[in-house]
Automatic annotation (TrEMBL), chain A:
Its main location: membrane. It is a multi-pass membrane protein. This is ABC transporter permease. InterPro entries: MetI-like, MetI-like_sf.
TrEMBL record, chain B:
The keyword Disulfide bond does not apply. The keyword Cell inner membrane applies. This is ABC transporter permease. Belongs to the binding-protein-dependent transport system permease family. Its main location: membrane. Keywords: Cell inner membrane, Cell membrane, Membrane, Transmembrane, Transmembrane helix, Transport. GO terms for cellular component: plasma membrane.
Amino acid sequence: MRREAPKSVADYTPLFFPALMLIVFFVVPFSTMIAVSFFKRNPSGFYTPDFVFDNYARFLSVFFGGVLGFSLMLAVLVAVCCVAIAFPFTYLLTRRPRRVQTLWLVGLLSVLSLSEVIIGFAWSTLFSRTAGITNLFVAIGLMDKPVALLPTFGAVLTGMVYQALPYTILVLYPALVRFDPTLLEAARTLGASPIRAFFNVVAPALRNTIVATLIMVFVFALGSYLLPQILGRPQHWTLSVLITDQAIYQSNMPFGAAMAVFLVLISLALVGLTLLVGRRENAL
Amino acid sequence: MTATLLRRVYFTIVALFLAAPLIVVAGVSVNSRQELSFPPVGFSLAWYAQIFTDPEWRLALIHSVTLAVCSAAIAVAVALPLAWFLWRRIAPWANIFQVLGLAPFILPPVITALGFLSFWATVGLFGQFFTAIVSHAIFFVTLPLVTLSLGFASIDRSLVEAAATMGADDRTVLKTVVLPLILPYLVSGYAFAFVLSLNEYIVAYMTIGFTTETLPIKIFNALRYGYTPTMAAVSVFFVAVAALVFGAIARFGDIRRLLGAMSSEGN
């Protein structure tokens, strides 16, 4: 049975339920959120319908500019750390026997599926004074007494790298697993050491994959909504944390929605850029 | 020789980094007194029992499991006909629904969550349990959609043609050829959605967080009122469930293929 164009209306029936669900429960909520971003705040309820730009005008403040700058900086840092750790790791992993690969993939998926709440809780325990890693350092004589390592910027960064690392590896995995091994063999035959061959042949050949992965991880890190709150101080809060805070605790849904729309625009622009990079890679 | 050693060291460091917080949490969860100390003082599994005996934790567990079972089922029910249609028909504009199915997962989760919050608040159903089920189903529809699309792409079309030549109509082909072939992909799509729904916090919080507690919501609320070893026990429980489910997928299916290793059979 070949693929064929639908001939009658009846041929469209399977599409009916998915289309209805996705439109009613994704397109409509998304549009509602955009609409709400133009509404007025109503402290006693959710919002009052209106059409104002006040919520967007609030972006033009030093405070907001600071949060935005910090969010972008943090996401860039997380993306760079993750790709730097994950790229050589994933490359080596794809050269291992299938059983080893499967075992690692199961482990990585298990960590990736963990709730941000649990990741936050686990790292706040690891960084705490009573149950933390510093107790280990005291035991082996590196430190005099245990200290709390949070809330600090380092704790936020570590937590977010932990959260994004399995994602980075799994994004890189398909590209690296398909990487043509003959390129590397050629380099090795010509006398390059494995490490030299990796940096001079593998990494440049996958330049576009690396760029696309950086962007994907950047968008992923922008979405982290709890770790900066659990592991950091208020000055480490990101745009995602601020959106949650405004929508839930300050009951200012319109302002939260406006920030969310803004975050969508940044993310969409970057995802579009990823697709563009990917297309150029396929054309080569 | 040195290369192998370097690789081992590197793999060990990554493994340690990924496992360290989980080891600490597992250690904390067996403390005999109600305190978080590591290494644990004494040994007790009472905190694991508490997940099932303490009424609040048990209720949260029931909420979480109900939510995950139902939302994953709806996600598969939405993804299956869509993936089948995209495979069976040539209708370029229908790809828009594929994009819609992928979007909730690619966008930062806060955005999808806030979209659901404004939607349910506007239609006046905010806080009802089923709104979380529907929201999770849409949020995670991406996973069965991706696994099923992979499954359909792997079907040898000549099999289907053979069935059609023998006189089978669309419905018979679907039931006797297509569905058995994509069943593993359907099951893994469901499993992915199930595990992620079980762990999901922000969408659940923004839809039913004020009225109902799921396990992640309960852990987060408990974080603010002081730590108990039960939270650690629940976390270990989550890791165990995820490892079990993904382990089963790897055992009975091809997890490497699911994650995109299509043409690596020669390695």
